[in-house]
Amino acid sequence: MPDTFSTLEELQAKVFADSDARKRLTYLFDEGSFTELDAYALAAGELTGVITAFGYVDGNPVYAFSQDISVKNGAMNEAQAKKISKVYELAAKTGVPVVAVYDSFGADVSDGSKALSAYGELLAQASNLSGVVLQIAVVAGTCAGCAAMLAQTADLTVMAKGASMFVAVNSDDDSSAENAAANGTAAVVCEDDKTAVEAAAKLISKLPQNNLSPAPMYEFTEPDTAFGSDADTAVKSVSDAESVTELYDGFGKAAYTALASVNGSAVGFVATNKTTDKLNADDCTKIAKFVRLCDSFSVPVITFVDTEGFESDDKTEAAGAVRAMSKLCHAYAEATTVKISVVVGKAYGAAFIALAGKGANADLAYALDNAVISALAPVTAVEFLEHDKLKGVEDTGAAREQLASEFARTQASAAAAAANGNVDGVVSPNGLRKLIVDSLDVLAGKRVSRLPKKHSNIQL
């Protein structure tokens, strides 16, 4: 035993002393109880700067590690990496989720190249587990250097306000949780470390433990929200009461993504009319990332479409809009999980094809009775198709709007789309929940085989 600890009692007192790292694990596990792994491991006579453990979250087994910034600023050293590596190894063997709580200023410089090698091995392990075992990262304090990349290999990242995440120190960069939410790095931002860890526990309970586990089932009550024109109320009118957890709230202007349950079964919701009518590059990236998460763990995706399409101007093109749009299309087309789409408002052109089209997207596609489905926006369509009717009209603008309104009610109506085979049925808002429930039931046994390949080659 190192000289720094003369007795077992002294070592135990040091190991099990109160710390933020230990408290955070009590916030995660049921009744605050967990079993610690390698508790007495030391690095150069000191504690390793991380607590590794297993326990239960909502009755399900979970592995976790929590970095201890009170020990050498939580610096990653070879001994700490070995403890974390063991967590990943056990998760791979058992298919049990991993929750990682980060609070460290980076690598232990006194460990030199050993710390760098350790990070590389952990990144490889976490990446190999991606899409196999559910991983949730919680940034409770500082998450610097390679640890930031490790956190981002998780399926979802939760941050506490006041926490920061960055790879390199730059005075011009904003590493705050608020900025991480705005750029899509953080899925959820919470008031403090306690609520962030509790949010991670909630997310764990909403998703399957691994890619072979069935989607969770819950006791539920009927929704108490009436269908509304905005994304949030539309989703809540179909979901079980109090079951909706929105993700990436601050990222993108039009897209809405959330985990929820319908009739007790876990689902993912995408809606496209959060605050604006058109999707930009951030919205496309947000939806694609969410769909891939759901598909990894076979969680059904329900998409509510109400959009005029994609933004298209020089600014959005410069932001890589086409790449982001193709990424969105690819995510839906590649996904083999259950996919149900409902046009709840407008669906024009490429946006209909990408989000609601049966060819690339939906197993079942529906439209509300007041939906408008068209290859072009109605005003644009009448310019091409009925321009002659505008000749000699005194108020061209009013006449154009009248023609567009008539076009939307007839040629672009939900009934016309159903008659053309573009959707499988037309439904009223009052019947939407039952239709979704029935569709989920009939698609529950879906099986799809894809062409053998290593992976798709979409530009990320």
What's the short version?
Helix content is 37%, strand content 22%. By secondary structure, the protein is of the alpha/beta class.
Provide a descriptive summary of the structure in words.
- This protein is α/β, with parallel strands linked by helices and 460 residues long.
- The strands form four sheets. Strands 1, 4, 5, 6, 7, 8, 9 and 10 form an eight-stranded mixed beta sheet that branches. Strands 11, 12, 13, 15, 17, 18, 19 and 20 form an eight-stranded mixed beta sheet that branches. A two-stranded antiparallel ribbon has the order 2-3.
- 37% of the residues lie in helices and 22% in strands.
- It contains 16 helices and 20 strands.
- Helix 2 (20-28) packs parallel to helix 7 (193-206).
- The chain has two domains: 8-206, 2-enoyl-CoA Hydratase, Chain A, domain 1; 231-371 and 413-443, 2-enoyl-CoA Hydratase, Chain A, domain 1 (Alpha-Beta Complex), CATH 3.90.226.10.
- Helix 12 (349-355) links the parallel strand 17 and strand 18 (364-368).
- The model has no long low-confidence stretch (mean pLDDT 89).
